[in-house]
Amino acid sequence: MRHRRLLAVLAVLAIAFGALTVLSGGRVLFGGTEARAAAGQVVDFVLWFNFLAGFAYVAVGLELWRRRRWAVRGAALLALLTAIIAALFGLHVLSGGAYEMRTVGALALRLSFWSALALVARRAAQSTTG
């Protein structure tokens, strides 16, 4: 029972994180020149990845809520894809590309969140089925 509650909490966190990601990314992408200017030195591929990934965050969260087995793999995939984007972002920075420090923080937060969620969800899911 404890593990089912944990999965439910993780699901709610993933859904909320996804909704906030879609809202913030959508505001910059579709909010006009003022929103774009307020965002600073946006790295387009990171912004687009985060925006689109937000929908996947919600989907994985919903499926965690339903305790679907693939949701744990989906969380791990989101962590992996975020790590790849972070590495590409690092290459962008090392090559002299413009960026905002908050992008560094946001990528670190996303990678940490999805890595931890995937690990905890995997253990919780194993406990509910095993």
Automatic annotation (TrEMBL):
The chain crosses the membrane at residues 45-65, 77-98, 104-121. Keywords: Membrane, Transmembrane, Transmembrane helix. It comes from the Bacteria. The keyword Transmembrane helix applies. This is DUF4345 domain-containing protein. It comes from Denitromonas ohlonensis.
